[in-house]
Give the backbone structure.
Amino acid sequence: MKVLIVEDEKMLAYEMEAFLKKNFYVCDLAHSFKSGIAQLDTNRYDFVLIDLSLPDGDGLEVLKYAKKANPEAAYIIITARTHLKDRVSGLDLGADDYLAKPFYLLELQSRMQAISRRKFNIKEELISIGDFQVDLQKRLVLCGGESIELSRKEFDLLSYLLLHKNRVLTRAQLSEHIWGTFVNDDYDSNYIDAHIKNIRKKLNSSANTTWLETVRGVGYRINK
Amino acid sequence: MKLSAKLTLFITGSKLVIALVFVTALPILVKEIASNYTNYTLKQQRKKILTIVKKNGLDYYLQGEQNYGSYTLLKEEFIAFLQVDSKLKLDTIKNSQRLIEGDTLNYRVLSYTFSNNHKNYLLEVGKTTTSIDQYNKALQRFALYGLVMLIVLTALIDLIFIRTMIKPLATIIRARLSQKQFPFLLKQKPVKTSTTDFKYLDESLTSLLSQINEAFFKEREFTSNASHELMTPISILQNKMENFLAEEGLDEKQAISVVEMMKTVDRLKKITSSLLLISRIENEQYVKKEQVKPLQLFEEILDDLKYRLEEKNISLSMSISKDDLILDVNRDLMFQLFFNLVHNAIKFNTQNGSISIEGSKMRDGRYQIQIHDSGIGIPEADLPFIFDRFMKTNLNSQVGYGLGLAIVKSITTYHHIELSVDSELDKGTTFTLVFS
């Protein structure tokens, strides 16, 4: 998969590039409006990540141009400008998603995966883990045909871990995913731990959950 | 009391006092003036008589007699010449009694001795004191009536004049100061007045208010810009650490310290986004056109926070009708508002405590929501400050940097929701929201 990152903050662009490369994406970087347009003229991309505030032009213009030059790509707007109208006009112009800075790269990857699933119409199979099956679309956790009731946030948490299996997710990464941009200044809260505890309790009554591992001091991981 | 009334009252009062003093002092004054005038007349008469004596000789009066006396028809005045002992020397004017034809009368008497033909004579010129005092009472009464009328008249004129003169002040107060909410509107024209003090006052107020406005907008702008500017470096830090953590070959100790750093950055991020949220609300970047069912929002919030209620074993009672509806609000902000209040009610609650959430119609028809907790309460001294940014109350380690309530305040202000708080230490706190 080929990704174009249009981001004038070079440091940030490099971090995004490093992360995406590790996850087997091929990246091109553009640090200005002009170079972004130039890249779009010469290459085809699967993903275009666009920062709205560029030194020599508006990111929304890049989006407009890219939609013509490379209509089959997926577009994600990345910005520190969190005005609602930017978000609306971005989505109106055909952006597939919108991420407010600062975001976790993991969240970016999840959004990209979700777009891919949507774009390529990948039918969600039941994901099985241990003795459980998780239906992401119907938001169900099944064990031996019986469904186990999880709260909204608990299900979000479990599916996020599942989509990033074999990888340690920190509490901050998890909480950003389940809370999004919602402002909650409760920094030291252990609510991720509380949710995990609840998930374990609810699932354990059906089968064991040794696959859901606590990584001491770091976070949680689903091993498969 | 209004300034114009005060001024009129004061002026009228002071006039009255002066008039009363004058009227009371009038008899003494009149007496003094009359006696001075009488003395003067008596002296004039003496002068006249002595001139006649000098010209025509004393015998002109005495006609060969030793003494001479003469008085007017009603005995108001008299003149007398008496031959007296040569040692007696007199030049006085004083009141004394004289017996004239069987009537004892009070006179103002000028006594003067002079020698004539080697004999010593005493001249006495007298005037009755009753004739001096006779106008006193009438004068006093007349002065009293006249003055009272004058006072009433001038007070009325003063009142009218003061009213017109002070009018610009009332206009200034109304136009400049009666508006309490930021930002001040400064579109009004300068207040019309010919009084330089008022002109100065109006100009100063206008300029001060515009300075406050400017500072206010600058602060808003600063918060917004600063938070935006902070977001990019935070992004870089966060993503660098995230990549670093994913690197292979990191041992547990290193991983934990990276996670600790990430936590700190996360905290910075949350503070910054809170500030950004407040500044976005203050800059009115949210559309207030949605309608929300409070029950739905609270159920959603409680679902998210259920684990926290369970942690502290807090009992919850909620009485909000499922038909209750709040109009013309922003749903996300309402969610944030209710969330912060419920979250606080849990955070500052005690083990096995309770929370109640009630929605009701007030007597005046407005809708109100009350969120009550049986928590640790807020000290009275802290109450005025709990909605300030970064205010730390209770000095309790589990207390955050208090942006939660600052957010609550800015959301309620933006939506014109009345917000009040009642709290008793160790008993609990009630937040009341009144929707207009």
Notes: The first strand of chain B starts at residue 68 and ends at 71. Residues 190 and 202 of chain B are 7 Å apart (CA to CA). DSSP finds nine helices and twelve strands in chain B. Residues 196-282 of chain B form a domain with the Helix Hairpins fold (CATH 1.10.287.130).
